[in-house]
Amino acid sequence: MPAFGILSGKVVRKRPDLEAILARRGGPEPFFVKPLENVQGDERDTIFLSIGYGKDNTGVLTHNFGPINIAGGEKRLNVAITRARWELVVVSSILSDDIDETRITSHGPKLLKQYLAFARDGRLPAENVKVGRESESPFEQSVWEALHNRGISADRQVGASRYRIDLAIKDPERPGRYLLGVECDGATYHRSIVARDRDRLRQQVLEGLGWRIHRIWSTDWIRDQRGAFQRLLQRIEELRGCREPDRQVTVDGSQPTEEDEGAEPPDIFCDTPADHYAGMEDVGTFYETPPSHRQKGDFYDDDSDILRDVIRVVEYEGPVHEEVVILRVARMYNLKKTGKKINHRIRTQIKTGVGNGTIRRHGKFLWRYGVTRVLARRPAPGVDLRQIEYVPPEEIGAAAKLVVALTKGITETDLIAEIPRVLGYKKKSDNIHRNIALIVRGLLRDNVLILRRDHICLP
Q1: Dihedral angle, C-alpha 209, 213, 217, 218, nearest 10 °
Q2: How many domains in the chain?
């Protein structure tokens, strides 16, 4: 005949009438009802474990689990769940999801939460799942701050090993549950060696664990932070509206079983401009020098206006590459080709302007006198894009610092890819990539920008 026993997490009230009835069953191992404190050494074939703690009449769980709360309470729980030889039946009015891990500090209640999840799901929750880490990149921190400022609670770097979730949006109505996992292309993403691993396998694994994943790309966050954030808010509202309740997940990665009800999510306006940098205060405009119609023969006169024309080009377009200055001045005089004699004559006047302090030379670029700073510039309407070699390094540096300031940190690869967009380039060639990469690495070498956790930041 099988032997039975009942363990209770709370103090067991004496019932002499029931004890007499149960004692009549006889057998070598009589039926017992004991609290956790008095069960050491006892075993039965089947044990009924009564949790004994639940919510009050207002639906609030106090998170007071008696002897399990105190130091060493995990040992008492361990004794309780190992008293059965063949079968352990858990009787509980609460589920693991009802225990809010942020409200408990001792180890015992945390293990009780995990054990209740195991009893319900038939599998152990993910091991070493941790919450409360810091963001791994300034980009992730920026997204977290945007959520925080909107009153949306999110844990950072939730999970274990290489499958941590960058940001996990908490369900405000159900403590201990997450509505959505937010993946940023931050440090965890870039640690994956190949694109297939980064873009597909991670998401498959996480969705297989019950997560709903929403991805934010750092380049989208740079170009249209409002639009990227509104799309995230829309996804959160959809899940709060419980269109897909079966895909909510708990802290330990398991899926909840009960269904939920909710209202339709509100409409959210999402404005995605085609060019985020257009009209930005920190982005300037590049204008070409208006044409001047001079006589070709005047070019070789001793009293020609070549120096004045050089200064005019520098005032309109500076800092400007000297080759561009030569080309502009030659066109003013209807000179189709710029041979050695034409080059020499214009360069002589450039040298004169530098010598008398009218213009300033820095490398191959000519600046207006007294000007030392330039914004990143993009062409005015109707003006052609400049060859990347003709864009001053200081201008590319200004674009780099703008992107880094907007993202609060970005990988070198993404920064090099984003700078051309600031300058108005729609397509990026190997030549553009190569020139910009050289300047970015120079900024790092000179500590104008610094590297922190694989992300480029402002000092």
Answers
A1: -80
A2: 4
